[in-house]
Amino acid sequence: MDMLINFPGGARVDAHFKGFTVQTDQPAASGGQDAAPTPFDYFLASLGTCAGFYISGFCRSRGIPTDNLRLVQKNEFDPTTHALTHVSFDIQLPADFPERYKAAIIRAAEMCKVKKQLEQPPTFQIETSALEPTFA
């Protein structure tokens, strides 16, 4: 899947793919207008929403309602480098959640594709090329 990344102005950078547009911005302190999440905010959200997808699927397949279930993601950062050092998920279950599924719902969250990708990171290649001319 290819993505087109463009620069609509200021510190905004948008990604276009599959008919969607993901808008990003930076906080005012970093030269942006704080009009959208930062790219790193989306990265962090992708971890929790991915784990949530697997949790939701697990519950759906067993007829377990998810309206009283929550996932709380806590992110820890190195105070010097500000690099992400630890992510923890707390799956908050309602009192009537079946005991026999507690270990299984953790295993479901561990299936998160984003988490698995981080465990085996891709290689990156960055290059330049000439912009193709557009005709009106």
- Quick one: biggest sheet? 3 strands, antiparallel
Multimeric status of the protein: single chain
Helix content: 25-40%
Per CATH, what is the topology of the largest domain? Answer: GMP Synthetase, Chain A, domain 3
Q: Which sequence of SSEs, written as H and E, runs from N to C?
A: EEEHEEHH
Number of distinct beta strands: 5
How many discrete structural domains? 2
Secondary-structure arrangement, i.e. CATH architecture of the largest domain: 2-Layer Sandwich
Distance between the termini: 27 Å
Note poorly predicted spans.
Answer: none
Write down the CATH class of the largest domain.
Alpha Beta
Mean pLDDT: 96
Give, in spatial order, the strands making up the sheet with the most strands.
1-2-3
Task: Give structural notes.
The structure is a single chain. The chain has 136 residues and is of the alpha+beta class. The protein folds into 2 domains: 1-36; 38-119, K homology (KH) domain (GMP Synthetase, Chain A, domain 3), CATH 3.30.300.20. The chain is built from 3 helices and 5 strands. The chain is elongated. The mean pLDDT is 96.
Give a topology summary.
Elements: E1 4-9, E2 12-17, E3 20-24, H1 39-61, E4 70-77, E5 84-92, H2 102-110, H3 113-119
Helix pairs in contact: 1-2
Structure in a nutshell:
With 136 residues, the chain is α+β, with helices and mostly antiparallel strands. It contains 3 helices and 5 strands; from the N terminus they run E-E-E-H-E-E-H-H.
